[in-house]
Amino acid sequence: MDKIFLFLMCFYFCYAKIKINKLDVPSSIRHGDQTEVVLDCDFDSGGDTVTEIKWFLDGDHQIYQWLPGYNKAGQALGKLKKNIDTSYQVTEDEKTMYRALHITDLSPELSGNYTCKVSGPMSEDVKTKRMIIYEAPDTGLDLTISEENSLIMCTAEGFYPQPNMTIYVNNDNETEIYQEDAETIELDDSGLFNVSSTLTYDPDALTDIFSYTCELNIPGTNFNLSETRTHDQENSSETQVEEELNLFNSTNSTESSFEESKEIETQIEDESDFNTTTAETSTNIDDDVTKGDTKILEENASVRHLPSLVFTVLIIALLSPLYL
Question: What is the pLDDT of residue 295?
Fold first, then answer.
C-alpha cells in the first residue's frame, strides 16, 4: 500500500506540469486601425491545479491577476488598470474563462513586452511576446533633389516608434546604397518622431538619367513606406516613379522592397504582354479541353452501342439456318 501511495505521489509531483500552448499577442497594430485587442494565454494544466494567472508588462510590472479557484473575475493593476476589461470571458470554462486580457483604448503608450505566467502548486510556465502600437501618418515621404548642391533629401514626420530611413541610388541598372551624410531625428511635442536624411552624390559618377529611392520602415512592425524618383541631369527634371505603402505579414526586408521598386518599369512593360499571352493560353486550353471532351464523348458513345451491335450479329447468326 505504501509503495502504491509513493508511486502516485511521485507520478503527481514528477509529471504534473503546466504548459502554455500559445501566447496570442499581435506583433504590431497601427494606431487608429482598431481601438481594442485581446491577448490570450492558452495553456494546459498538465495534471496540476492552476491557482493563479498573472500578466506583466515590460518585465515585473504586473497589470492583471486572476485566481481561478475563487469563481470571480480578474483584477486589473498598474499602468493598464483603466484599459483592461475585467468582465471579458475568452471561454465558457470556469477554469480558463478569465485568462485573457481585453485591452481597450489602444494607444502607442501601451506598446511593450507582454508576459503571461500560469502557476500551480507543482509547476508554472511563462511566455513573453512584444506588441507595438505604432503611429504612421497618411501623408507620404518628401523626397527631393538639389542639383546645385548635388544633394538628395528625404523627410518624414509623425511616426512612432522611431523609424529607420535609407536612401538608394539606381545608376545604369545597378543598385548602389549610399551612406547618408546626415540623419536628423527629432521628437515633437506630441511624442512623435520626425526624421530627415540627406546625402551628397557625384554627378559625374552617375548616368544622365538615374533613379533614387527613399525607404522608411518602423522596426518591429510590418510598416514600410517607399518613394522612387527618376532624375534627368541634362534637362534638370525629375519624375515620380513610385510612392507606395507596403504592409507585409512579416518583418520587412529593405533590400527586397527596393528590388521591387527598381523593377517597376519592367513590370509595367511586361504586364500587357503577360495579359495577351494569358488570354491566348486560356483560349488554347479551352480548345484542347473541348476537343478532348468531344473525343471522350465519341468513345463513350461507341462503347455504349457495342452491346447492341454484338446482340444483332448473334441473332442474325442464329436465324440464318432457318432460311437456308
Answer: 40
pLDDT in tens, 10-45: 545 556 799 999 999 999 999 999 999 999 999 999
User: Please, what is the Cα angle at 234 between 233 and 238, to 5 degrees?
Assistant: 50
Say if residue 321 is preceded by a cis peptide, omega within 30 of 0.
no
| Burial class of residue 146 in the structure, from the number of CB atoms within 10 Å of its CB (0-12 exposed, 13-18 middle, 19+ buried) | exposed
CB 47 within 8 A of CB 63: no
Global pTM exceeds 0.90: no
pLDDT, one tens digit per residue, over 220-272 is 999 999 999 999 888 776 666 555 555 543 333 333 333 443 343 344 344 44
Domains of the chain: 19-134 (2.60.40.10), 142-265 (2.60.40.10)
The dihedral region occupied by 59, where left means phi > 0, alpha psi between -120 and 50, and beta the remainder, is: left
